[in-house]
């Protein structure tokens, strides 16, 4: 995968359109003049968490003794499950009830943006990417920047697209993610079959 492909993958996993409603709900009790600042702070926290997992995720997988193909196939399965959630969301939403007051780390930085899915995919990419490490960091920053831009416009996008528009965009992202996950699975299953004697 090249830098752009990785950035698109990470963008889809962070699911900015699906998180618009969460950001609006979590910030509804925050003073209007502080909402943008709080949202930006939470997005920076999310970036720090994502960079942390990208930096040390491979050490976790190495310590567990997992092969490149096993982690890539597991990553493909995780992406497929995420995609199915995007296309067929549960009635309870992603996070359920959002606590009152000004959010701090939870639920906006994590699990909304830097959720378990994004962190797992980062660990998998770190262990399976064959290019230079800086490519992963650049792709992550690109994906985060696009996600941050969308989420900082959450109120405007909700008014502009409406509930049906947001649902349509999220399901389209789910379809793209299914294609990426199936491609990842097929590539690595093929790789395993070629290795076998």
Which terms summarize this structure?
single chain; mainly alpha; UPF0056 membrane protein; cell membrane; membrane; transmembrane helix; transmembrane
Describe this structure in words.
This protein starts with a helix and ends with a helix. It is globular and about 60 Å long. The chain has one domain. It contains 8 helices and no strands. About 3% of the residues have low confidence. The protein is mainly α and 197 residues long.
Structural class: mainly alpha
Q: What's the order of the H and E elements?
A: HHHHHHHH
Determine the N-to-C terminus distance: 27 Å
Percent of residues in helical segments? over 70%
Transmembrane segments: 36-57, 69-88, 108-125, 137-156
Main location: membrane
Keywords: Cell membrane, Membrane, Transmembrane, Transmembrane helix
Subcellular location: Cell membrane
């Amino acid at each position: 995968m090249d830098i752009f492909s990785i950035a698109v993958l990470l963008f889809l996993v962070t699911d900015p359109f699906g998180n618009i409603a969460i950001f609006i709900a979590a910030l509804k009790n925050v003073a209007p003049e502080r909402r943008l600042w709080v949202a930006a702070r939470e997005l920076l926290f999310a970036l720090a968490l994502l960079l942390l997992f990208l930096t040390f995720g491979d050490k976790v997988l190495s310590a567990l003794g997992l092969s490149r193909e096993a982690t890539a196939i597991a990553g493909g399965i995780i992406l497929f499950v995420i995609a199915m959630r995007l296309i067929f969301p549960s009635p309870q939403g992603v996070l359920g009830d959002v606590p009152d007051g000004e959010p701090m780390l939870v639920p906006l930085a994590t699990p909304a943006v830097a959720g378990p899915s994004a962190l797992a995919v980062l660990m998998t990419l770190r262990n399976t990417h064959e290019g230079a490490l800086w490519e992963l960091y650049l792709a992550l920053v690109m994906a985060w920047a696009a996600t941050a831009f969308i989420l900082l416009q959450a109120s405007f996008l909700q008014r502009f697209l409406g509930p049906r528009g947001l649902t349509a965009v999220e399901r389209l992202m789910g379809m793209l993610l299914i294609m990426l996950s199936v491609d990842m699975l097929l590539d690595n299953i093929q790789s395993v079959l070629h290795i076998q004697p």
